């Protein structure tokens, strides 16, 4: 597989050099990211963005910076995207999560804006709940996170967020149950290490 990805990277780099355009830059970034080189993926997208501003490329770069934890850079790109078009639910949702990481008080209002657009979306309910939990509103968070978990029981990150809220409200047995479900099958999600720490803390 590593040989295949190296060949694909080489082919996309060559194609981009011959005729730079957004689709090739996006494909190159995808294979670089899949091969574990997130920094090079970001460079490929930034090169294309510098050559010619493009919404799809900027969105890919914003999401990548968010995954890498480059919060300030992600914020800049999300703000440019939100300034240039109608706000989509997932754009607002990601932007709210970035603001939370940057401890910006606008995080909650941004997430609630997304929730108004998509009141049934479990990912948005999860984001609003998680931000409320970080702001100390445990009861408000709990209702939203329970709702998100009911709508998306297979999502391990939502179950971890609910476990945190349950733990902070003194419901340790329930929190343990949610964590055990979240961490079955060794999932990868943002906060998985914090989830494992909480699981160890709650072991009877």
Cα-atom radius of gyration: 19 Å
CATH architecture descriptor name of the largest domain: Alpha Horseshoe
Based on secondary structure, the structural category is mainly alpha
Mean pLDDT: 96
What is the terminal separation in angstroms? 42 Å
CATH superfamily of the largest domain: Tetratricopeptide repeat domain
Number of strands: 0
The number of domains = 2
Short description:
The chain is an all-alpha fold. It is 77% helix and 0% strand.
What would you note in describing this structure?
The chain is mainly α and 204 residues long. The protein has 2 domains: 1-85, Alpha Horseshoe (Serine Threonine Protein Phosphatase 5, Tetratricopeptide repeat); 119-204, Alpha Horseshoe (Serine Threonine Protein Phosphatase 5, Tetratricopeptide repeat). The protein is 77% helix and 0% strand. It is built from 12 helices and no strands. The longest helix is centred in the N-terminal third of the chain and has 17 residues, at 2-18.
Write the layout of secondary structure elements.
Blueprint: H1 2-18, H2 22-34, H3 38-51, H4 55-68, H5 71-84, H6 89-101, H7 106-117, H8 122-134, H9 138-151, H10 156-168, H11 172-182, H12 192-201
